Amino acid sequence: MGIKIIGTGSYLPERILTNRDLEKMVDTSDEWIRTRTGISERRISADNEPSSELALKASLKAIEMAKLKPEDLDLIVVATITQDRITPSTACILQNKLGAFNAACFDLQAACTGFLYSLEIVNALMSTNPKYKHALIIGVEKLSMITDWKDRNTCVLFGDGAGAVILEKRTGKHDIGGILASRLASNGSFNELIKVPAGGSEIPTSAETIKKRMHFLSMEGQEVFKLAVNEMAKACQDVLATAKVDISEVRWLIPHQANLRIIKAVGNKLEIPEEKVYINVHKYGNTSAASVVIALDEIVRSGKLDRGDYVLLTAFGAGITWGANLLRW
Ligand code: UT7
After folding, report:
1. For residue 28, which atom of ligand 1 is closest to its CA?
2. If you measure from the C-alpha of residue 225 to the centroid of ligand 1, how many angstroms do you get, rounded to a whole number?
3. 135, 170, 205: which is the final residue of a domain?
4. Are residues 166 and 261 in the same domain?
5. Cα–Cα distance measured from residue 137 to residue 48, given in angstroms and rounded to the nearest whole number
């Protein structure tokens, strides 16, 4: 038996915001952004494009690749920190847009690690409950909504986008692979490192919180950088050891696309050749929960994955949360 990915899709909003555009908004330069982060441009969704719209466009592509209909879906999980509304879940709003009324739907909040958490949770649900045969997982963010466009420390980093996968339970004896091993981790003692301070039950929205710009994302960049490199590398080593797979057997390492220097440092720690480390951070910046799944879709659609290949996913984000999944294609 295996829980296999049978369809992928992604959607990036049309509007491109370049480093040159940002030079006109804050005290920064194209050179600083490129050398410190590897980012050249990012996508910004339109006012009438909430996360559920981005998710819808990515989902339809994944459903089409899987040759399914929306009513075939038994589960819909949306990993996001930029849900359409505080309640109901974006997964329910997406369900309505898709017409996927046979699915149970919920959102999952693990920041940039949300897609990896979702994969492991859905894998567990599908493995134990025979009712779940097809699941849709989406990583989606409209980070432009919570970005402080006056703060040069953060506004150069983030972008909007969505990625989706369809999982199918396969029961044939030749159905090898699927999600071989996962490591999910968190350390809430670092919850202050990346946060949106106001708008929740701790500090509700008020005229003062708006005036103090407390509804935007803030981050202790350097501290996050160090933790991210070490923890992502360790999580990767952990899943490889669990599955008894050597790093030399891995076709693709897909790290969370936050910063090119972090991606390269993780690759170096794992001693994986550079050409096996997937990079698209230059085009989209950090799209949080969407980043790994957008990259996976790009690899699949460019024909760079074959049956039996090992793919290693890793991510790190607010919480702090981090993790890795080892997939066999
Ligand atoms: O998705 C969740 C996970 N997030 C991450 O993984 C992000 C991790 N952190 C990072 O990627 C990096 O720490 C940043 C890209 C955020 C920052 O890079 P850094 O090399 O750590 O720079 P820094 O924060 O140490 O800042 C260096 C200098 C500072 O000036 P001084 O104090 O040395 O005079 C900053 O004020 O660069 C300045 N600076 C900027 N200069 C031009 C900060 N942002 C900018 C900017 N343009 N946009």
Report:
1. 47
2. 10
3. 170
4. no
5. 23
pLDDT of residue 177: 81
134 lies in the same domain as 65: yes
Q: Does residue 247 sit in the same domain as residue 113?
A: no
* Angstrom distance (rounded) from CA 297 to CA 136: 14
CB atoms within 10 A of CB 67: 10
Q: What is the distance in A from the centroid of ligand 1 to the CA of 130?
A: 48
Answer yes or no: 112 catalytic.
yes
Residue-level pLDDT at 55: 98
| Contact between 258 and 291 (Cβ < 8 Å) | yes
From 115, 182, 179, select the one nearest 324 (Cα to Cα): 182
Residues in a beta bridge with 2: 170
Question: Is there a single domain that holds both residue 149 and residue 182?
Answer: no
Domain hosting 215: range is 178-328
Average pLDDT, the chain: 97
Q: What is the pTM of this model?
A: 0.97
Please indicate whether residue 186, judged by its CB atom, sits closer than 6 Å to ligand 1. Answer: no
The one catalytic residue in 92, 112, 155, 236 is 112
Active site residue 155: no
Which residue's CA lies nearest to atom 29 of ligand 1?
A: 153
The full length of the chain comes to 329
Q: Are residues 163 and 202 in the same domain?
A: no
CB 22 less than 6 A from any atom of ligand 1: no
* C-alpha of residue 157 to centroid of ligand 1, in Å: 9
The verdict on the CB of residue 28 being under 6 Å from ligand 1 is: yes
DSSP letter string, 51-77: HHHHHHHHHHHHHHHTT--GGG-SEEE
Looking up tokens 């890795």, which residue turns up? 324
Model confidence at 173: pLDDT above 80: no
The string of pLDDT tens digits covering residues 106-158 is 999 999 999 999 999 999 999 999 999 999 999 999 999 999 999 999 999 99
Please give the tally of structural domains in the chain.
Answer: 2
Residue 176: pLDDT band by 50, 70, 90 thresholds?
Answer: confident
Q: Pick from 22, 36, 148 the residue to mutate for probing ligand 1's pocket: most ligand atoms within 8 Å of its CB.
A: 36
* Residue 73: CATH number of its domain: 3.40.47.10
